[in-house]
Structure formats: structure tokens, C-alpha cells
Amino acid sequence: MATVLLAEDDADIRFLVTFKLEQAGHQVTGFENGMLALAAARRNPPDLAVLDILMPGMSGLDVCRELRRDPATAAVPVIILTARAEKADIAAGFAAGAADYIIKPFSPRDLAIRVKAVLARVQA
């Protein structure tokens, strides 16, 4: 079982992602903005973070960059989950340090598969 930190400002999507990942056996902690998620990650680094880009206060890209800067969280893999689908957005996500980039709307089943794949790469 992996611990997953989720930062998503849309409560319905946060619920859906939490439900699907918990169904896959993960422990999920969800936050409605990037600042709360970053503070939680610094207190207790998760095995993986799933971050929306567009959130009030602090974007998922900013959270990802901050995770990379901190030695305690630098190795935490990040999956960006966002509606931003332009090539420049995707490139910015990977440049910030994301391990994967998923565009909304998304398949909850595919998300669970990609979470599993990212965790497997980290453990290898």
C-alpha cells in the first residue's frame, strides 16, 4: 500500500480520485489547494503525489517544483492531473519534475494503472 497525496480543488474529482486509488489499495490524503498539500508533504513525505495544475493560491506546478527543491521530498514522484492539454503545458509539467501527466477528462481506471506504473518505476 502506497501513501498518495492528492491536491485537487474540485471536490468531486478529489472524491473520485480518492475512491479509485483507495479501491486499488492506496492510502490517499486529499487537499483542496497546493499550499496545504505542500505543507503536508513536508511534514510527512508521501510515496506519490497527484497534483492538479490550476488551484487557488499555489499551482500544482509550483508544488512540484517545491517538492523537487526540498531534499526530504525530492524523490517523491508526481503525477500531474489537469485539464491543461497544450504541448507547452505538458512540457512545463515534465520540466517541473513530474513523472507523468494525465489530461482531464480521464479514466479513473487508467489513473490507477498509471499510479501503479509510476510507483513500480520508483521501486525498481
Write up this protein.
- This protein is an alpha/beta fold.
- Helices cover 48% and strands 19% of the residues.
- It is built from 5 helices and 5 strands.
- The protein has helices spanning 11-23, 34-43, 60-69, 87-96, 108-123, and strands at 3-7, 27-31, 48-51, 78-82, 100-103.
- Helix 1 crosses helix 5 (108-123) and helix 2 (34-43) packs parallel to helix 3.
- The model has no long low-confidence stretch (mean pLDDT 97).
The rounded distance between the terminal residues' Cα atoms is 16 Å
- Major β-sheet profile: 5 strands, parallel
Structural class category: alpha/beta
In one word, what is the shape?
A: globular
Could you state the order of secondary-structure elements as H and E?
A: EHEHEHEHEH
Rg to the nearest angstrom? 13 Å
Low-confidence spans:
none
- Relative helix content: 40-55%
Number of strands: 5
Beta-strand residue fraction: 15-25%
Strand sequence of the main sheet, in spatial order? 2-1-3-4-5
Number of helices: 5
- The overall average pLDDT, rounded, is 97
Topology of this protein?
Blueprint: E1 3-7, H1 11-23, E2 27-31, H2 34-43, E3 48-51, H3 60-69, E4 78-82, H4 87-96, E5 100-103, H5 108-123
Parallel strand pairs: 1-2, 1-3, 3-4, 4-5
